[in-house]
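Lab manual, section 2.4: Encoding a predicted structure.

Procedure: take the sequence of the chain (937 residues), apply the prediction step described in section 2.3, and record the output as structure tokens. A sample record is shown.
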Amino acid sequence: MFYDHQQIEKKWQKYWEENQTYKTSNNTDKPKFYVLDMFPYPSGAGLHVGHPLGYIASDIYARYKRHQGFNVLHPVGYDSFGLPAEQYAIQTGQHPAITTEQNINRYEEQLRKIGFSFDWSREVRTSDASYYKWTQWIFIQLYHSWYNKNTDKAEAIDTLIKHFEEKGTEGLNANQNDELSFTAEEWVNASDVDKEDILLNYRLSYRAETTVNWCPALGTVLANDEVKDGKSERGGFPVFQKKMMQWSMRISAYSERLLQGLTQLDWPQPLKDAQEYWIGKSQGAQVKFQVEGHDEIVEVFTTRPDTIFGATFMVLAPENPLVETITTAAQKVEVDTYIEETSKKTERDRMADVKNVSGAFTGSYAVNPFSNEKMPIYISDYVLMGYGTGAVMAVPAHDERDHRFAKKFNLEIKKVVETEEDVQEKSFDSKDSVCVNSDFLNGLHYNDAKSKMISEIENRGIGHGTTNYRQRDAIFSRQRYWGEPVPIYYKEGMPYTLPVSALPLELPEVEKYLPTEDGDPPLGNAKVFAWDEANQKVVSTDLIDDQTIFPIELSTMPGWAGSSWYFLRYMDSQNDGEFCAKDLSDYWGQVDLYIGGSEHATGHLLYSRFWNMFLKDRGWINHNEPFQKLINQGMILGMSAFVYRIDGTNQYVSKNLAADYKTQQIHVDVSLLKGTSDELDTEAFKAWRPDYANAEFILEDGKYITDREVEKMSKSKYNVVNPDDICEEYGADGLRLYEMFLGPLEQSKPWNTQGLSGVYGFLKKFWNLYFNGDVFEVSEEEPTKAEYKVLHTLIKKVVFDIENFSFNTSVSSFMIAVNELQKIKCNKRNILEPLAVIISPYAPHICEELWSLLGHATSIEFERFPALNEEYLVEDEIEYPVSVNGKMKFKISLSAQLSAKEVEDLVISNEKMQQILEGKTPKKIIVVPHRIVNIVI
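Recorded output:
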């Protein structure tokens, strides 16, 4: 029977949509299972065949769990704020909302074509005001919270104010920017403005001067992961370090909990390692060094206080505020020049550049509190303001980077850890030795020396033992238009939150999407964007009088804001009264399976964990972590095509002749190749772009053969394959099966359209099992044991594969089973019905159609997954190879129920064995049950 995939797939996609087959109920006695894909950003290019890989895997798992009787939440939505739509708006004037809407419609059309079992009724978009109302609400709750180190959780700011009213800062143990000290009386007598200023020191969302990655061309601050080699990832514009007043999130308060929480998560180890490194926990001491001739002190954090006697110079971060104070007049030009050069590098670039040594001398000296020797103070870009105190004591004998710096600037290198190596030539970084040249530490090993030195530091009142974290607070404002407005207005220079009743604070209309002439963010162009405190509403900016009408914050939230809690909104997406009802977040709890790319390791995944922990602290949800199991899918790579242009000409030479010429290799669109071959359609190439219209070709055997190479699939490499084309030719089920068949989910693998013919052939064979010629024909006859064995072998394999996410081997097993059933001409209902259920998570359209033809009026989706019966896998007979003196002589079929002694007796009495023995008695007989018989004579 002809397998008409186009008609079948359209029919069932229409059925699922009309019947809302995948709409998930919140009211059920079933156990829950929550399957989620990482939030897609709807780009203008739409999907290519690499994008659905993770979605197909999660969809298979979601469908499998439904077959197991679970109430499955498998939602979809869009992370729809972002720079690309804004850049397009700047170039064309088209509002980003229009671009975003068009892109989402395109994505949805493509996703529906592939047959995903999403609950579309729960769709969310971060750029919808009904969604970002709750992103703004969470921001307000963070603003009105502080982190109490005694209870180790976030609490309402009211409890902090109460502490101040009763005790001032006495006994306070809080996460804060600066350590403040005041009495209850001083707090009570402080002005409202001063109180607000003090509270900003403790709030979990706060405003402070921060060093940021500033991109003038884009007019915005960029996150570290949006900057590559000193330039913006989007557009390649220069990026500079700049100090600005920015909103930040106090994620540093959660560093230890974020670290410890990793032990409870079923995540890939490389991803856990990335977060652990990012958080960067280290234990050591905070030590104060006096600057000679100044009142200032330099405070450093060191993990090696045992080496303090070997500290011979100090290095400050170029951004350290002390630099301006302690730099001498003679060194000012050199220092200022160096600071300007450093501003062109991001922190990530500075951390990565371990080879180059640079710096500038400030002209000042610190005094080593233990050796009492003068230590010249330098600045260098290898010291970061955000880690520790923005200053290091340099011990060049025992730190590789300090050693390189000392050699470059001819500074003293003093050995304080015993070693035979010449520390003048190479640093000795080991902790496996004893202290030397270190006064009271001499002869002590690392741990004892570290403890003793920390005690001495504390006794002298010049520091204390401490734990430090590399992770800094997350910058939470962007100077751009297309993002969530920050629900803040300014009165007497202090920020105040809008009342919750005023949410959402909607994005205002603007005439242009660039910063204002005064350098304000694009929202500065808005004409209606001021807060009327008396009437509690947004009014015209012309009315601002700083008496009752005040300016609203002009920055917007970063791209990660909306994606830091979307997994919670899916639980209750239509609720206008709260971000998620507590009973629903209690029911759905954690995401049980989360699939997405590894590139989000230290961005989205950390921020989501942080917000989740905060919301739990404040009692709005009950679970500690958002994502229990996480899988990073690999990439599907494209097969790029290249032509060779002879230098200085418009001539193109075929691949195997190119070696005879000096050529330039140029990407060419894979759609210009003939069929699935490597041959270029030369006429199509000439019509592709105007500069190729007059191209001339040097052919081989009358053809132009392109070169091919496996690369990342991307628009810029012209190697993108559109899933719509694949669905048209091979069907969505063919696409789904092929993407799984390509290889293990976590690995990257090259796309080859030619390979689809294999899975398409399998689908046709599977389809024809149910037909006799053109007639649907299924027998009610009881299957044979051999038929049941094929079915139950498949059940066992597929259950194991799905539960271990080995989807590629399941597809192989389908092919084997269908081939075997075809060979034995099986058309029994008791085999073919469960077979359709087993294959349906992978190929839902064809299985729905077969299920309907089998006489069922309801969808196959909620049928119980066939149960394994091991009895069908027990062999009745075993064919034993019989080996004599190490050589296989013959095989004998015996009952699988026989004991080893019975097998031995039957083999010895066998006529062939008797001929081999020639009356001799075997020296040794070894029977491996169900495997082999070995005889030594």
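Check your result against the sample. DSSP finds 28 helices and 38 strands in the chain.
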